[in-house]
Amino acid sequence: MDSLAIGSLGLNIFLGLAIFLFVVRIVLTWYPQAQMEQFPYNIVAIPTEPFLALLRKLVPPIGGVDITPVIWVGIFSLLREILLGQQGLLTMLSYN
User: Which pLDDT belongs to residue 26?
Assistant: First the structure.
């Protein structure tokens, strides 16, 4: 495998895992009794909280609902499609 393929695979795994963690974080918001500081919830909270805290400074809760995890799912999905999708930039580079 060349370096572009290895980098694309690593990026694909990172973006896929990030999307998964944010979707789990969205589901956990439906359960307010979940203590995000305790195991197993902190497995999701620790890697996602820096991203959420950054975006919470720009996007306040709407009607008391924190929509920042949804925004991050959209951002990471868009990045994954633009870079690694069927006609993504890195995919097209790997054919040359």
Answer: 94
